[in-house]
Amino acid sequence: MSDRKIIVTGGAGFIGANFVHHMVGRGWHVITLDALTYAGNRANVASLDGDPQHSFIHGSITDGALIDTLLAEHSPRAIVNFAAESHVDRSIDGPKDFIDTNIVGVYTLLESIRAYYIESARANSETAFRFLHVSTDEVYGSIETGEFTENSPYSPNSPYAASKASADHLVHAWQKTFGIPAIVTNCTNNYGPFQFPEKLIPLMITKALAEQPLPIYGNGLQVRDWVHVEDHCRALSMVLEHGIPGETYIVGGNASRQNLEVVRHICDILDRLRPRTSGKPYTELIEHVTDRPAHDTRYAVDSAKIQAEIGWRPEYDFKSGIEQTVNWYLDNEDWIDVVREKYDGRRLGRTGHRGSGT
């Protein structure tokens, strides 16, 4: 077993790709596995082509034979699972893909890991193996006051959240029943480079640049906590190295904002960095649209556990993080064009307020 080799599933998606770059930069050998569905973008990790510390495999976590082969060939230190269908709107329109990937896919991963870890006697290896399952705070549902902790009951309200909650329960069950060294993290809203433009922040940036309406669900007063994807990746790498199997760690950014406030902030940055030819403010493009079903009003998490036990804290404040993110999209309009070629046009009028998966 290589102490510096890991398999990252869903590694061509938003958070996964950032994590792959983060780990390769820290000297890890990363095998990226991605099915390259609409949100998986080979270009997100293309800059690593030719790097001896990285290899890319086109495949799905629902392919147990492939997972078995990769485990046997590479004997990795860990599997980190980002592979998931992650957009709430899509889960409402078509829940089956979410069941297939987020539940059946995780079950398939767990069974392959069980055979690899238990039946191959790697449980007695001097080099500890870990399965790190990356999940979302949406499994807890909505909260009016206070904050969710690792002990909060699950109460998912969308097919997406329910599928992720199901996956979390499977991971915990396989850890307790079969002894798989699994860890779960539940993170709040991510933002940063490579995010697929159906999620709130990149959608607003790309629509504004195209002089299109900026659709906001309902009154736009829904509250989300935001964490920069680089901070999330640091948290995951620290949990991978120092986390305790069987434990859950919540990752939050301490940056709660109303959706409308976030959009207005993006507009203000664009007014300064890329003014409209008309001279009018981008906020003029804001358009309130019918709210989506079962739209959670507020998410808020307490990340005290990961801070106390792992020593992680977010380094980005929201103001500097969102400025960096807007600049990245302005500097990478070719990337946006490539993504648009894969984009489901029916989504261009939807807002997409979430983003913890690929």
Quick gist of this model?
The chain has 358 residues and is an alpha/beta fold. Helices cover 40% and strands 16% of the residues.
Would you give an account of this structure?
It is a single chain. The protein is of the alpha/beta class. The chain has a domain at 5-195 and 226-254 and 297-316: Rossmann fold (3-Layer(aba) Sandwich), CATH 3.40.50. Helices cover 40% and strands 16% of the residues. It contains eleven helices and twelve strands. The protein has a seven-stranded parallel sheet, with helices on both faces. Strands 7-9-11 form a three-stranded mixed sheet. Helix 1 crosses helix 7, helix 6 (200-209) packs parallel to helix 8 (259-273) and helix 8 packs across helix 10. The longest helix has 24 residues, at 96-119. It starts with a strand and ends in a 16-residue tail after the last helix. Residues 345-358 have low confidence and may be disordered.
Short descriptors:
358 residues, alpha/beta, Rossmann fold, seven-stranded parallel sheet, three-stranded mixed sheet, 11 helices, 40% helix, globular
Enumerate the strands of the largest sheet in spatial order, edge to edge or round the barrel: 3-2-1-4-5-6-10
Number of helices: 11
CATH architectural grouping of the domain at 5-195 and 226-254 and 297-316? 3-Layer(aba) Sandwich
Query: What is the CATH top level name of the domain at 5-195 and 226-254 and 297-316?
Result: Alpha Beta
Mean pLDDT rating: 90
Radius of gyration: 20 Å
Structural class: alpha/beta
> What is the number of E strands?
12
Residues in β-strands, percent: 15-25%
Shape: globular
List SSEs in N-to-C order: EHEEHEHHEHEEHEEHEEHEHHH
Distance between the termini: 27 Å
Considering the protein shown, what is the CATH homologous superfamily of the domain at 5-195 and 226-254 and 297-316?
Answer: NAD(P)-binding Rossmann-like Domain
Kindly state the percentage of residues in helix.
25-40%
How can the largest sheet be summarized? Answer: 7 strands, parallel
